[in-house]
Write a structure and sequence with these properties.
Elements (H helix, E strand, L loop, with lengths): L1 H15 L5 H25 L31 H4 L14 H10 L6 H24 L2 H20 L4 H5 L13 H21 L2 H16 L7 H32 L3 H28 L5 H4 L7 H7 L2 H5 L7 H41 L1
Length: 367
């Protein structure tokens, strides 16, 4: 339900650009603050009421009671999301942590969340695809995919270590013959696989858009060449993939240093939101109120994938109320890719280092 409300609202804000009108921006900020206070009071009241019973696993669900999409491990798409057990003992070369993450972490508490994500995201993608095709701007649909990734990635990766603590199984991993690399790589690979598959269900409209543009370009119905459209598609996929990797690495890092999943998720959303959305606000303030030239204000957006996606289509983006100078457009892609991938590697290295220190500490205490 949260994604049904958040995704359309976030995309409307990005495309409508309310910061162009200062009174409208102030009004929206006041309304958002009041809505936040009301929601917090409702949450505090709801916490006093006992929660319902814990959800059942995917195997115990009654598929006859499910509406819309039905996920079954033996059929598509449930088979690729969470493969069924072979019923045989694990091979010596298989990583048991990776197998556990694939089979039980995604569907271990039922399929309701995944079913809602798939159905809502596909339905919500249709209007953004239509708008992108109408205005000849892939950035509209890319923005939608980007917001979707930013919302789902922390929710699936912020608990890969904290849930082990909450289940009191974190120290049990230390008693196994698995190495530090096997445990961490298994969790990161499984999380990347799950989020990549969920995001992959939104790629067919993107590929369809690129195919249409390539056909038009080959027939001379638009100014761009076929190679230009191919480069646009490659760079768009690169930015989305780099963002997914970075958000997963960031959420996994907070999952290791935080004690609860909720705290890890909050920090992940705050940091990712600050890096991705705050540059948009800074740019608007600098350009419209501080009088900073556009060529200088744009450098404050190098940490935001929205600027990088917009820089791929400066003509379409400028025609709809934004300004991306062509002479600095390419730098956004290069700098964002370098910052994102370097930060991801640094976060993963920090995860290995901190987990190794924790293992050594527990070993010393045990001695």
């Amino acid at each position: 339900v949260s994604y049904v409300v958040i995704v359309p609202v976030a995309l409307i804000f990005l495309i409508a650009n309310p910061m162009t009108n200062f009174p409208a921006a102030v009004t929206i900020a006041i309304i958002s603050f009041i809505a936040g206070v009301v929601l917090l009071s409702m949450i505090a009241r709801r916490l006093k009421i006992p929660f319902d019973k814990a959800p059942v696993s995917a195997e115990d669900e009654n598929t006859d009671e499910q509406l819309g999409l039905v996920l079954d491990r033996s059929r598509f798409p449930g088979k690729i999301l969470s493969p069924p057990s072979s019923g045989k003992p694990l091979d010596e070369k298989e990583n048991p942590v990776y197998i556990k993450e694939l089979r039980y972490e995604l569907f271990g508490r039922g399929t309701l969340l995944v079913r809602l994500l798939l159905q809502v995201s596909l339905v919500a993608a249709l209007p953004f695809f239509i708008i992108a095709a109408h205005i000849n701007g892939l950035w509209v649909y890319s923005f939608y995919m980007l917001v979707f990734v930013m919302l789902i990635a922390p929710s699936f990766s912020a608990g890969i270590f904290t849930q082990e603590r909450e289940r009191a199984t974190f120290d049990l991993l230390l008693t196994t013959p698995l190495t530090k690399h096997q445990i961490i790589s298994a969790k990161l690979r499984a999380t990347l696989r799950n989020i990549g598959i969920l995001a992959g269900f939104l790629t067919p409209p993107l590929l369809l858009y690129l195919a249409i543009r390539i056909i038009f370009a080959s027939e001379g119905k638009e100014n761009n060449h076929v190679s230009d459209v191919a480069i646009l598609g490659f760079c768009t996929c690169f930015i989305l993939a780099a963002t997914i990797i970075f958000v997963i690495a960031l959420s996994s890092f907070f999952s290791l240093i935080c004690r609860t999943t909720m705290r890890s998720m909050i920090f992940s959303y705050l940091v990712a939101g600050s890096l991705f959305f705050l540059p948009l606000l800074v740019y608007q303030v600098l350009e419209r109120f501080a009088g900073v030239p556009i060529s200088q204000a744009h450098w404050f957006g190098v940490t935001s994938p929205f600027f990088s996606l917009a820089s791929l289509e400066p003509g379409s983006f400028t025609a709809h109320g934004f300004h991306i100078p062509a002479d600095i457009a390419a730098y956004h892609l290069v700098i964002y890719g370098a910052i994102t991938l370097t930060s991801s590697l640094a976060l993963i290295a920090a995860i290995y280092m901190l987990y190794g220190r924790y293992c050594q500490l527990r070993h010393d205490i045990g001695m």
